[in-house]
Structure formats: structure tokens, C-alpha cells
Write a structure and sequence with these properties.
The protein is of the alpha/beta class. Helix content is 41%, strand content 12%.
Length: 387
Amino acid sequence: MRPTSNILVLLAATLLALLAIEGFLHVYHPFGFRLRGNSIVLPATMRYAFNGATGNGLDSEIVHTKNAIGFRGPMPPPDWANHLTVVAIGGSTTECFYLSDGKDWPALLAGNLVPNFPRLWVENAGLDGHSSFGHTVLLHQAVAPMQPNVVLFLVGANDVGLSNQKGDDDRLNPASAWSSPRGFLLALAQHTEIGALGLNLYRYWHTVRWGLAQGEFHVPRDPGSFAPATTETPDATATTLIAAHAAFRDGYRARLENLVRESVAAGILPVLITQPFLLGDAVDPRTGVDLSRVRLDLWGSVLDGHTQWRLLDSYNDVTRDVAATLNVSVIDLARLMPKTTLYFYDSMHFNNDGATAVAAFVAAALCPVLASRFPSQTGAHCVSRTN
């Protein structure tokens, strides 16, 4: 057989194999990715089950389900207009993937607020790994069309070091997909299952490389065995690093301001929430561990807890400033949440007790805001539930 014929046979076999894989992926998604190109694939009617026996403050058996629209929580009420409707948007610290149904903080928030707002509907639209770019896509694609009264944005952690040069907003424009080789690859991922799989695998690799995948750092179930590695980052190194993130924070500010403005334009009340963190300038009251010296490989740098917290809180400062500048409410959960292993199973994800505390803090701060903006829905005076 001639070399040309061999090449043609190889190309034909490759094409047939790709078509077979494409057809298989149309029917079955073995990896459960939630993005198809730059569109979100909501995991409707999904059920996840895990063994959480080794996790600090987690259930031994964890069951996490999604409803028919792909969110955690009850389906929208049929008399929608008669309800006060709230959607929580965020990444993994909102989705609470490893907390059982009813124990994620948006579900607990609903329980805290129902005495004050009898016709209340709260939905958890958190998606693990999503940054402000993902929140923008979700707002456009799924949340704004629902027209809830309120959207809660727990933001910041997944935007640390996120470059504004990625053209996040422009990627929402289908016409831009064909303007460059990179745009072509994104368009391929948008329109084919193979392209979507490749892009999702790349994104997951990037997440792991930056230490953002859950599992990088764990608090053991037995507090007595909590003995993390320690380090001490020089002050000059910390100061230089945080200054170097100025451009990233500017990009985050622009995206967050856009989220707020688009929510308002859609007739939705946005409320911002800052991101808490276990590590920082505190001693864990349960174990006596100095949380400022814990060594953590996160956001592309191996640093001590003091510096990692300073870096994250510099993004929280942006959230606080955007709220003040645009005159929207901010719940400063980062400052309200105690730094204790009682509430976290790793550096930033809440365990059962942590979600309970988050719900109480958010309810106490949110209740008067809702009562002021939606007085017809108020059934009782707001009472602090943070104890």
C-alpha cells in the first residue's frame, strides 16, 4: 500500500474514532463537568453520595442532590410573585458540595429567615470552582431569567490571581469566538463534546495547579491529630506578592461591579458577601495551633497562613469597596466568622457547624435589609440569631 493511502486510512480511522467518541459523550458524560465550552451545564436531578467519615465535622454518609433546574433546594413555588425569592451564587463555599442536603448554609439560611418572612424561597446556585466569570454566565443564563428578588454573591476566593487579560466578558459574545486561534478552540469546546472535554480537563489541571481543588489541605476529624506543616514568610516577600496582585484585583473589581450593575438592571437586589478563611492571625481554640504559621500551597504560592489570609483579604477589601461605591449591601462574613477548626474541614470550606454559623451570621445581617426593601413580605421583627 502506498504511503498516501496509509495516511488516508489513518485519517479516516481517526475521524471515525472521533465521531464515535463524540457520539458517546453526547449520551454519557463520565466526568460530570459542568461547563460545555463557556455555557454552564446545570446538573439537573443529580444525586451524589459520599463517605465523609474522615472529614472534620462532616457526616459519615453524605447525600447531595440537585433539583430539576440543577440547583440545591426546593423547586420554585407556583405562586412565585407572592414569595420573597432569594438565590445564592458562589463557588464551592456556597455550593457546600460535601454537606448533606439541608445542611448547606443557603438551606439553613432559609430556616433562619422563615419566621421573619413566611413566604420565603431560598435556592443554592453555587457551583464548585466558579469565579466572577462563571457567576456572570450563570446570572445571564439561568438566574436573571427567573427574576428572583435577591441574589447573594459569596465571592473572592476563586478570583485570586485571575487575569483580566482572559477577556472574560468578551467571551460571552459568540462573534468573538472566531476572532483568534484561542477563540476558535473555545468555539470548538462550545459546539463539540470532545472540545468541551478537553477544555474542562485543562481547566481542572489549572485548578489543581493553583491549589484550589478541594482536598489540598484537610483538618483531621480528630482535633488532637491536627499538626500541619509550618513556615514563616518574610514580610518583604508578603508585601511584594500582595502588591503584585494589584492588576488582578483591578480585574476582579471590574467584573464584580459588572455583576452588581447587571443584577440591578435586571430588577434584582444584589448583596455581596466576603470570603472567610480558617488561616490567619489567630490561634485555633480547639488545638492550640498557630494558624498564622500553617504552611499552605494555594493560589500558586507556598506561604504561611498569615500571608495567605492577607492576600485573600485584599480581594475582600475590593468586595467591601465595590459595595460602598455602588451603594449595595455587604455582609462581611470574612470578619464575622471565627478562625477555628470547629467550623472548617480545610482552609476555607465549611463543615456542618460552620455552615450553621454562616447561616446565622448571614441571616442576622440580611434580615433588616430584606425587611426594609420588602416590607410587604415581613412577618416579624428581625432578631439576631448569631448565638
